[in-house]
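Can anyone check this?
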Amino acid sequence: MTGEKPPLKILLAQPRGFCAGVVRAIEIVEKALETYGAPVYVRHEIVHNKYVVEELKRKGAVFVEQIDEIPDGPQPVIFSAHGVPKAVPEAAERRNLIHIDATCPLVTKVHMEAARHHQLGYEIILIGHEGHPEVIGTMGQLPEGSVHLIQSVEDAEAFMPRDEQKIAYTTQTTLSVDDTKTIVAVLQRRFPKLAGPRKEDICYATTNRQEAVKQIAPSCDALIVVGAPNSSNSQRLVETAKRCGCSRAMLIGRGEDIDLGRLGNPRTLGITAGASAPEVLIDEVIDTLRRRFDVTIETTVTRDEKVAFKLPRELRRVPEPQTRRSA
């Protein structure tokens, strides 16, 4: 035994990790804490990442699932980046809560498209995953029954509209690009008059991260996606890697979650991260791997991202000094 570590080449995907919508959502919570003081309430996880949520809790954010968990009065409440049904801000107003919307602007775009098509008399199809907060939020923009959820090719084949001439579709922003194209192709074949978004609804970050995985996965013996199990875009990255020939693609939360038995002894390992995962967790994963392997790192850049979103107007103003609220 020489004690030498086996060599491991890491192909680090770029872009990876935080997108502009996630950066904005986190900044909104931090700015609200600075403006109003703790506690600041957040409905649902601001983004789907336990590490991010725990860090914000430490700073004074209180996470709830329902508005009625928040005390009455002028308490600040932030809606997560995934968006919420219209009924949620309406309930917040009735209780005199100070509500701040951290919905990603690209999700808001989907909401506006659905509303526009509905006003024009179209039946709305939403391609997405049942139960995901973004899907719940988008369907909740319109009267119940106005939006039909399509999750698969089979759903697309079975869907029966009221009027084949008046159908429009929109999509969740964090879907598989390839799966969505297949579903849309089925709908377009069945309904030639199908109306769609002016610009693709799957967001730039989802698309770019999937493209980056497609670039590195064929060269990898295994691939790690850093992200949360309830993160749609992270799950899609695992699926993308497997489709590109990397069968040992796995999702982990952080370095301590690496299953070394499942990982085996790869010579080349891909690493990427979902749009809600901070770079500190990628560093942690690499540090963990260094304890077992002699690591070299090669960054593979497929696209340069320069997108940034402004904070909500109420947090861009210089605030008046806030009086301490009763909890």
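Reply from J.R.: I decoded it. Confidence is low (pLDDT under 50) at residues 321-327.
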